[in-house]
Amino acid sequence: MKKPVIHRNYSLKAYNTFGIDVTADRFVEVRTLEDLQTVLTENNDGDIFVLGGGSNLLLTKHVTGLVIFLNLKGIQLLQTSDEYTMVEVAAGEVWHDFVLWTLARNLGGIENLSLIPGSVGAAPIQNIGAYGVELKDVFESCTAISIDGSHTRTFTAADCQFGYRSSVFKLDLKQKYIIVSVQFRLKNKNHLLHTSYGNIQAELDKMHIAKPSIQDISKAVIAIRSSKLPNPKEIGNSGSFFKNPVISQTHFDSLKTAFPDIPGYPNGSNLVKVPAGWLIEKCGFKGIRQGGAGVHDKQALVLVNYGNATGEEILSLAMQIQEKVSKTFNIQITPEVNVYA
Ligand code: FAD
Ligand code: NAP
């Protein structure tokens, strides 16, 4: 069998949705588990970077070592009970294609996560979430290979330590395991509909849908997202650049006096989540442009590449935003995007 080809000094421009033009020392596309095992065994110096769809990534410099573009494909039905269907999905499947696959079979649970870019294998990394639903709500387990290729491990939800846009794979086990497949538990019937978040209900009203199906919810989410988020194929971006900060109720109350229109959502006892997009907009960054880097004019949480920005320019803009938000509100916002610097 032919070994996967390792390219040298390979451009990653087409492999990150920011469209940053940097190169990797070495690059390999892997399509089977056997090939992945071979590549890991033969390159066990630890300098490996795993790449899915590159939609949650800011590359600010040349990537050293070996970049593995994980392109494992396949969706497998595991078992079905009266209430649930278990499905195993290979890491390289496109997340939104998988969502459409579930909707075509009337399997419920990830309709609110429609149109999130990227791969299935990366979904557990930050416990992807949108419109009140998170990956962890349907996650059963995932299978991962250690970065040195020495062993395979199954992670349960508890092992993954899922948090708000976070998991053990972003913390203690960062770049230590390669997720090769994810096992989901999806509902066959009695779907739990989440329509109260963001503009979903308003969009359903606009569509004149009183009793929505999971397919209707997906359509509503797709319509909202298409209207306010920049399409990475047209303007480079990585979605929300920062996480929404969670602050104390006391801090929020004091900010409310100075900024009566500040939005906040209760987040556990005595904690409030504040939309970072609002903070950034209030600091005057919405729609601004610095060279090729900018802040999207419809959603201030999204930093964009207007065509020829370097990763450093985008990072510099992000740091200016962090500083101004900190000075104005005494809130430290942190990147959600994985920054390679
Ligand atoms: P990549 O960007 O390729 O990788 C992200 C990180 O995970 C990197 O550190 C990489 O090394 C690591 N990684 C990737 N694959 C694996 C693997 N198989 N095993 C181990 N490590 C791996 N996110 C949300 O949560 N909610 C949203 O609503 C949302 N909306 C977005 C909208 C837009 C327009 C864009 C551009 C992004 C959005 N995102 C959103 C962010 C992004 O789509 C998700 O985080 C997605 O899961 C990233 O997948 P990816 O395959 O592109 O990961
Ligand atoms: P939005 O509806 O304009 O709301 C702004 C923020 O307020 C959101 O970020 C959301 O926080 C929070 N929010 C809204 N309704 C809420 C509720 N009922 N309870 C608690 N928090 C609430 O947001 P948007 O920008 O259009 O995004 C819509 C959804 O898609 C959000 O869930 C967002 O996270 C997700 N999204 C994520 C990315 C990404 O790259 N991570 C990019 C685009 C959209 P949360 O973000 O915590 O949900």
Describe the strand arrangement of the main beta sheet, using strand numbers. 6-7-12-10-11
- SSE pattern, N- to C-terminal: EEHEEEEEHEEEEHEHHEEHEEHEEEHE
Question: Which cofactor or ligand species appear?
Answer: flavin-adenine dinucleotide, NADP nicotinamide-adenine-dinucleotide phosphate
Highest CATH level, the class of the largest domain: Alpha Beta
Oligomeric state: single chain
Q: What number is the mean pLDDT?
A: 97
**Biggest sheet, in brief?**
5 strands, antiparallel
Low-confidence stretches at least 5 residues in length (pLDDT < 50)?
none
Task: Tell me the number of strands.
Answer: 20
Find the structural class using helix and strand composition: alpha+beta
Task: Enumerate how many helices there are, as a single number.
Answer: 8
Shape: globular
Query: How large is the share of residues in beta strands?
Result: 25-35%
